[in-house]
Design goal:
heterodimer; A: alpha/beta; 8-stranded mixed beta sheet; 5-stranded mixed beta sheet; 11 helices; 18 strands; B: Rossmann fold; 11-stranded mixed beta sheet; two-stranded antiparallel sheet
Chain lengths: 348, 353
């Protein structure tokens, strides 16, 4: 899987590194001073991940926990994300990662103890000012939270941490069905595994190399049965002629696998791109129907559906979920233009 | 016609013998032409390779369909041994202790599967330390490829690179000179054999693209400016992704009507582009129709309404000329009937599709 494994010098005898190297005996090993000395220094074409993927093992430096952008997660609560990996083994053709790092190679940071300390510090500082708030932390801003956990093995660190941080939530966002490592842990009510779902035909055409819908739903069923809290993301929603029927079907299928009252939240978001990422899509996937969507350059220069269309799509899917018994307060719309959120408007 | 670029005549010698090349009178020596190929001796190093390739492409870019850089390279990995032949996937460059961020990749499907990237070094790589540093990024090192690929990219011409490994140890200046004198004939022969094999394979696989003429551009009913031509092509590309071909569009009743209408070719083109835009954006058409229906009491009273054509902002601009009390009454009545709330609801996505 990995042609070359680059390892920071100080980690060469790290138990996790030795464990990883055992799994990839045929990979070439290269010692480096810092991940940043090699990763992203030259522009490596995104689609080279299909034939040549390298792995970097290092320690994350700098700001380990960052405040999330405004439209992140349930509104009214503070959201932070932490970075323990860059890039993803999947190849979703709308993914912003194709324009982000200038390299598709995978980076795994192994200093989870340091990251955990920083999370704790941020939580303590926040609660000193706002003790009544729940603070959210998200893993997987630049990677899938579960896909490589068999390799990276960090879940145990974060389960230990969040057992102590009862007034904080951790979201593990994924498209993976790799739940083996998760199942080794005792479920915690404040660690929510959230699955990104799309209609089956969309997964096939857009979420390249990801597990199919059926497998993701089975993973949801299994985790729920074992008491792991579940969140759902219908994001990105992409319009096509089957849009209404396919989201009805998706909602029905979802509820066949998990009861409505067991879903902690469902977030809805329509597909959107920065100009740079859209150009990457044009280059990398010239045959994709993403390029024949009714997009406009929007108020923030992002490429997305026009405002009435995106609001119509969100409301349509939201109503389908409400009609099927999902409480309205558990559905949130993932929007950068929050002032347009019809939910906000109703409260005016 | 392909342009074959070599750093030295020694690397090109088998090619020069295999095809009938004649010198081309040009700004500098080293450019030759046969019935099938241009051949350019660039000289060693990225600067001269860049200057000469760019100059040739500037003059002959209409004839040249692909640029090939052929020659020797050093190995940066144990996996590549002397005399190994390599088709390169991506060209990187290292200049004065720093890496050039820009890279150039071959678009040839065979090359894209190659595990080998090439680092073009702006100075000769002679020490193990340098080799080690560069080996983090590429498996072979040369002196010209990145510059040639960059020139090809400038003219939007695809490039490929075929390299033969000249050394798997750190060469000295003396080794390099020895190579040019003694080993070049063998290496050039091997490069030629590989090149010919690939050319035969490509020829066998080649499916001549049927360059379909754009049927709208050749239709005398329309007149397209350059920007309209570009817009048309991008719309046709989008419609093709939706499964609508230009041929089926041409048979479309509405387009037939546009063609038959008594308007100038320029006006017909404008209408055609509007029609194609509507085909690409059917929901936007419905949104506009819904808005216009809500605004109809105003238009009945001859009030001109304008709103954000991108539907992003909440505003409505009304203008009207009143020339009598009757006009004023009409306007008053229409404003009573018109509901701004309903107008706003459409912008907020409350409509049926």
């Amino acid at each position: 899987m990995f042609e070359i494994i680059y390892i920071e010098n100080q980690l060469i005898d790290h138990p996790k590194v030795l464990e990883i190297l055992k799994k990839y005996p045929n990979s070439e090993i290269k010692k480096i001073n810092k991940v940043e000395d090699v990763f992203g220094r030259v522009k490596k074409p995104y689609l080279q991940k299909r034939t040549n993927l390298n792995l970097f093992l290092g320690e994350k430096k700098g700001q380990l926990v960052k405040l999330a952008p405004p439209a992140y997660g349930l509104s009214g609560e503070p959201h932070y994300y932490f970075v323990h990996a860059y890039n993803c083994i999947y190849e979703c053709n709308y993914c912003y990662l194709q324009g982000y790092f200038h390299s598709p190679d995978i980076v795994l940071y192994l200093n989870h103890e340091e990251i955990a300390l920083e999370i704790k510090k941020v939580a303590v500082d926040y609660h000193a000012k706002n003790p009544e708030h729940i603070v959210w932390f998200h893993a997987g801003e630049y990677s899938d939270s579960l896909a490589l956990t068999s390799l990276s093995g960090e879940l145990n660190h974060y389960f230990k941490l969040f057992r102590e941080l009862s007034n904080c939530n951790l979201e593990l966002r994924t498209k993976s069905v790799n739940i083996k490592e998760l199942l080794k842990e005792e479920p915690l009510s404040n660690i929510i595994t959230s699955f990104s779902l799309s209609p089956a035909h969309r997964i096939k055409s857009n979420d390249l190399k990801t597990p199919p819908l059926k497998s993701r739903l089975e993973a949801i069923r299994e985790l729920n049965a074992k008491g792991f809290p579940i969140g759902i993301h219908f994001d990105p929603i992409i319009h096509d002629e089957q849009f209404i029927e396919s989201y009805e079907e998706l909602a029905d299928l979802l509820l066949e696998h998990i009861p409505a009252n067991k879903i902690r939240y469902i977030s809805l978001g329509v597909v959107r791109f920065t100009k740079e990422v859209y150009q990457k899509v044009q280059r990398n996937y010239p045959e994709s129907d993403l390029l024949a969507q009714e997009f406009v350059r929007s108020f923030d220069n992002k490429i997305r559906y026009n405002r009435p269309m995106r609001l119509w799509m969100l409301q349509k899917v939201k109503q389908q979920l409400v009609d099927r018994g999902i409480p309205e307060e558990r559905i949130y719309l993932c929007m950068e233009d929050t002032e347009l959120d019809p939910m906000n408007k109703t409260n005016d | 016609m392909k342009l074959l670029t070599f750093a030295h005549r020694g690397e090109a010698q088998a090619f020069l013998a295999a095809f009938v090349f004649k010198p081309v009178e040009f700004f500098f020596d080293g450019l030759l032409k046969s019935d099938e190929y241009y051949l350019l001796i660039t000289g060693e190093g990225p600067h001269t390779a860049s200057e000469k390739t760019i100059t040739v492409l500037a003059k002959f870019n209409e004839e040249i369909t692909e640029v090939l850089n052929i020659g020797v390279a050093g190995s940066l990995t144990n996996k590549l041994k002397k005399q190994d032949l390599v088709w390169v996937r991506t060209a990187y460059a290292h200049h004065a202790e720093r890496l050039e961020f820009k890279s150039f990749s071959s678009l040839n499907p065979k090359d894209m599967k190659s595990p080998n990237d090439c680092m073009t070094a702006f100075s000769r790589v002679l020490s193990n330390e340098e080799k080690k540093k560069l080996s983090h990024f590429a498996s072979l090192v040369d002196r010209e490829l990145w510059a040639v690929a960059s020139a090809a990219n400038l003219f939007k011409i695809p490039f490929r690179a075929l390299k033969i490994i000249s050394d798997d140890l750190t060469p000295t200046e003396a080794d390099i000179c020895k190579f040019v004198k003694e080993e070049a004939p063998l290496f050039s022969e091997k490069l030629l054999t590989e090149f010919k094999t690939t050319e035969t394979e490509t020829e066998a696989l080649k499916v001549l693209p049927i360059e379909k003429e754009n049927i709208f551009l050749s239709d005398k009913a329309f007149y397209f400016t350059t920007s309209q031509e570009r817009k048309l092509q991008s719309m046709l590309d989008g419609l093709k992704l939706k499964g609508i071909s230009p041929e089926s569009l041409m048979k479309n009743e509405s387009i037939q009507k546009i063609k038959e209408t008594e308007k100038s070719p320029k006006d017909k083109t404008r209408l055609l582009l509007l029609f194609l835009g509507d085909q690409l954006n059917p929901i936007a058409v419905k949104i506009r129709a819904s808005l216009e229906e809500i605004l109809s009491p105003l238009s009945d009273a001859k009030i001109t309404s304008t709103f954000d054509s991108a539907f992003e902002d909440d505003w409505l601009n009304l203008s009207v000329r009143i020339q009598s009390s009757r006009d004023l009454e009409k306007v008053k009545n229409s404003l009573k009937i018109f509901s701004y709330e309903d107008f706003k609801k459409i912008l907020d996505g409350q409509f049926d599709v």
